[in-house]
UniProtKB/TrEMBL annotation:
InterPro entries membership: YaaA
Gene giving rise to this polypeptide: yaaA
A Gene Ontology BP annotation from the UniProt entry: response to hydroperoxide
Signal sequence, renumbered to the chain: none
Annotated GO CC locations: cytosol
Originating organism: Nocardioides guangzhouensis
Entry protein name: Peroxide stress protein YaaA
Amino acid sequence: MLILLPPSEGKTAARRGAPVALDALSSAALTEARSRVLDALVGLCSSDEERAAEVLGLGPTQLELVRRNAGLRTAPTARADRVYTGVLYDALGFDTLTTAAKRRSATRVAVTSALFGLLSPGDRVPAYRLSGDATLPGLGTVAGHWREHLDPAVREAVGSGLLVDLRSGTYAAFWRPAPDLARRVSTVRVLHEHEGTRKVVSHFNKATKGRIVRAILEDGGNPRTPAAFADLLRDLGWKVEEGDPTAQGTRLDVVAAEL
């Protein structure tokens, strides 16, 4: 099983550590594609701070993030599971997993990244600022770039197992499963139910997905079909409704009454 996560906008910068070595990251076939995005981002942020801020959707008080991007080639790195922060990652709590769960996360979790494409929790990367909907000079849209390169890497990572896709819409555009893989893909939508009405609450959605990943890693179950995955979630205490298979996989609705 491979659990595919979105990145976080917020990241914790390492205080010390070696610079990023692209050829040492997992999914080595992505090295050239990663280098192209890194060159485009560093080049943009090194040449004109104000233009870079505009391209990256940053305000005038966020120029420090532009400067951080300009120095990415030499910036210190840390494990991806320590760099990414935010609601989902706080709820998942990589650092407080049991030893066995941490070991499982090394092969069962991957993060979609606008800068690096696909990362394993142990990959050492610098903190950066680049959204999945950005368009970089000389590269084009980040999403379009990764659509050309990610499929082999995702297939290698998932192998013959189930892919649990927890990405947000922006990062789902980086890669979509081909028909032969869709039957082994399960997507998850978290719904809050109150007085008979259901809706998606962004913060709650992210926190619940983080708790789901944590519970799966601690449990150690390794379902191989969407139906078996739904059963695992029920065994772990969630109310789950299964949808019909689609070209993008089988959607599971996790319905919760409490935020």
